[in-house]
Amino acid sequence: MDARTNERADKPRPAQRPEQLPADKQHGAGERPKDAGGKPPPSLRERLREHWLLATVAACVLLIAAIGGLAYWLAIRNFESTDDAYVAARSFSIAPKVGGYVTEVPVSDNQHVKAGDLLVRIDDRDYKIALDQAQAQVAVAEANIGNVQAQIDSQHQQVDQAKAQVDQAEAQLKFAEQEESRAKDLVDKGAGTVQREQQTHSDLLGQQANTARTKAALVAAELGVKTLEAQLASARASLQQAQAQLDQARLNLQYTQLTAAQSGRVVKLSGAVGTFATSGQSLMMFVPDEVWVVANYKETQLRDMRPGQQVELRIDAYPGRKLTGRVDSVQPGSGTAFSLLPAENATGNFVKVVQRVPVKIVIDDWPADLPIGPGMSVVPWVRVR
After folding, report:
1. I need a labelling partner for 167 at 20 to 30 A (CA). Which of 228, 267, 278, 365 fits?
2. Which tens digits make up the pLDDT trace of 189-199?
3. What pTM did the predictor assign?
4. DSSP secondary structure of 77-138
5. CATH number, domain at 310?
């Protein structure tokens, strides 16, 4: 080696700074990193000891959250809920049974009415005239019955008179037979004349003819009674027909006033004074006060659901109001099974879909201060356990 190499080897090396050393050589084994002041940072235990109040509060909050979550899960598992639920009612249209001009509409849109309240009045003048005509026809039919009945009574008198004439003719016939027999005996004995015998025989023939005539008159009188009785039956049938027309005229007159069959609300009012309403034309819709909730639950939620179970409900329109009710019934079949075009799973490719089954829920007490009607969304919670 030359002198330059020895000089470089004998020259001491400068000390390295700590940041230039490797991480495993900056501190001794088992030593913690130090901060800028040369002190190691505090451990987790030391930090917890330093902030014990905050740590205690955090632990309590976590414990309360865990207990609350467990309690909520234990409570919610006893309920079945669905957001596919709505208010339902048997709404129907109000339509007149007879036609005519509307003369009065004493109700307005969304008005609540009671059973028997007038909804629409139709011009009834034509129907009053028809009622008067029907009453006149009834009076005519009753008069015809009285006339035929009087004729029958008179005919009975004629029958009695004919019977008396028959009795008289039979008595005269018997006397003529006796006279003819006596005259014939006298002729046979030679004590009487042939002329006398011929005269009594002629009288006998006359009485026989008279008796036959009176009997025929009696038969005719009796047949006359039967004829009049048939006319009486016809007159009574005419009376019944006239009475039926009278009843129909009265009904038509009553049909000119459309009244509420039950309490409820008037909606979609289209009838107005002056319009011509035909028979069956809808003038308004009517929503009865009796409404309920139809909840379409999944079929997998019906395992423990039974009629009579308690229900809690909230209406989307009034989230701050909670209602209570009970399960009234569960439809024996899915909703699609009773639709207009039910699904046919036997055709095409089959994909299993969880079906929904309508459940009818009745409410204990609907709030009177809230307008609730069909179609409003509801969220029910049925307690099944």
Report:
1. 228
2. 766 677 777 78
3. 0.65
4. TTEEE-S-EEEEE--EEE--SS-EEEEE----TT-EE-TT-EEEEE--HHHHHHHHHHHHHH
5. 2.40.30.170
